[in-house]
Design goal:
455 residues; alpha+beta; Neuraminidase; 2 domains; 10 helices; elongated; kelch repeat; Kelch-typ_b-propeller; BACK domain-containing protein
């Protein structure tokens, strides 16, 4: 019944109605229509206790947290003489971590009500510090229907070497940054958690490193290093933690002939976990199916799927020249973070390493890659999670070889590393659309979605 009423009527119901169920329904509607309700004149007639109850709720529906700040200032200024004393009390309910840096600087910091209160100015200063050192703060909860932190949504980040390349999907615009040489991202894995992106491992002075860098669009700095230096690892974020699987160590692989080759590092079979609240890494254990490197990871319903990758290095001696190659596998292992346990899933149809994988609508899509160090894979396939069945694409993949993939905004995007083109999956038409061709894009190896607060 109430869903057919105009938002302004909710206030009248709260005041006049004594039927408990109707009052509860009206309060629910107030939360669901909070932004529209907050610009009504009757909103300013709410009592302080009623308003504070609304502002403290995770259930109020707003597009941006800045809408909450505007609602607070509007209510106080309606009767500033009598309500000014409540501003700090209400301002504490504005989740400033979820407000963009530009808005805080241009609107919140300059608001007279804020400037006149030392306690409010301290809260604003803390919000700025979150951008500088996010690891020091407990992240605030995103409200119902709210875009995370007024964040940049619909953005992809491609990276490799000393380059970060951000792609604005809606405007089809690339922005490229050149990083200092000591922040080289070659053979680095990366994953986003909330409004931050973690870059783990990679090469430093031609050696695997345990370095971890974090960025939220405003800063790019090192945090606690991993326990083990590794390259070509796989990463995932689940249950508020960062997990890094396998990869290659600084130790060189020893072939059966006793030879060592600087191009082949020992593949590891362990993983480790970063807990942001404790700011430290811990040993996770061993992988289910032995050593893996250049594998892919996706998360479905808080389970991490570790797909493919190289799991062996072989040496074939010809009359004069040894042929040394990495061999990919079809393995699919599933990690349950809540129980720290592994299970096996049905293997892929094709051996793949250094390939793209993304999960969408209970499907896992796998594209491109290598089956060994020298042989590219030109096929794609998808896994029905519920049915436990792999199916080959019946349509052609427009590129072969190394690739990376991710989900963003309800679509699967894939970066063809060889041609440096960005594709989006059009499953309705059984085809890949060339979403962007960037001729000047540096040699990027990976693509991930980002929700940075500030660009």
């Amino acid at each position: 019944m109430l869903s057919n009423l105009q938002p302004a009527c909710f206030f009248v119901i709260l005041v006049l109605c004594t039927h408990l169920n109707v009052v509860i329904e009206a309060e629910k509607c107030l939360k669901e229509e909070f932004h529209e309700v907050s610009v009504q004149s009757d909103f300013c007639k709410l009592e302080i206790a009623e308003l504070e109850c609304l502002l403290s709720s995770d259930e109020i529906t707003v597009a941006y947290e800045s809408n909450v700040f505007e609602a607070v200032t509007t209510w106080v200024k309606y009767d500033a003489e009598n309500r000014k004393k409540y501003f700090l009390q209400l301002f504490k309910h504005v989740r400033l971590q979820l407000v963009s840096l530009d808005y805080i600087s241009d609107k919140v910091r300059t608001e007279t009500l804020v400037r006149e209160s030392p306690e409010c100015r301290d809260l604003v200063e803390d919000a700025f510090h979150v951008y500088v050192n996010p690891q020091r703060f407990k992240l605030q909860t995103v409200r119902k229907g709210e875009m995370k932190s007024d964040a940049k949504v619909g953005f992809l980040l491609c990276f490799g070497g000393c380059y970060l390349c951000m792609y604005n999907i809606s405007e089809q615009i690339w922005t490229t940054w050149t990083l200092p040489s000591n922040f080289n991202l070659t053979f680095t894995t990366a994953v986003s958690l909330g409004t931050c992106t973690y870059f783990c491992g990679g090469m430093d002075n031609n050696q695997p490193t345990n370095r971890v860098l974090i960025s939220n669009g405003s800063i790019f700095k090192p945090i606690a290093p991993m326990k083990i230096a590794r390259i070509n690892a796989s990463a995932a974020s689940v249950c508020g933690n960062i997990l890094v699987f396998g990869g290659e160590l600084s130790t060189l692989h020893t072939f059966s002939t006793g030879h060592k080759d600087a191009s082949f590092h020992k593949i590891t079979d362990d993983f480790e976990i970063y807990e942001p609240d404790k700011k430290q890494w811990k040993v996770g254990g061993n992988l289910l199916s032995g050593p893996r490197t250049e594998a892919a990871t996706v998360v479905v319903k808080e389970r991490v799927y570790l797909l493919g990758g190289y799991n062996s290095i072989q040496e074939q001696v010809y009359p004069s020249i040894p042929r040394r190659i990495k061999r990919a596998c079809k393995l699919v292992d599933v990690y349950e973070h809540s129980t720290n346990s592994w299970t096996s899933a049905r293997q892929m149809n094709h051996m793949r390493a250094s390939f793209g994988a993304a999960a969408l609508d209970n499907r896992i899509y796998c594209v491109g890659g290598y089956q060994d160090s020298n042989t590219q894979v030109a096929t794609s396939e998808f896994f029905e999670v519920t049915a436990g069945q792999w199916t080959n694409f019946t349509w052609e993949t427009p590129w072969s070889g190394p690739s990376s993939a991710c989900k963003c905004g309800g679509k699967v995007y894939a970066l063809g590393s060889a041609d440096q083109s960005l594709y989006s999956l059009n499953s309705d038409e059984e085809d890949w659309d060339i979403h962007s061709i960037e001729q000047n894009l540096p040699n990027c190896q990976k693509v991930i979605p980002i929700s940075w607060r500030s660009i």
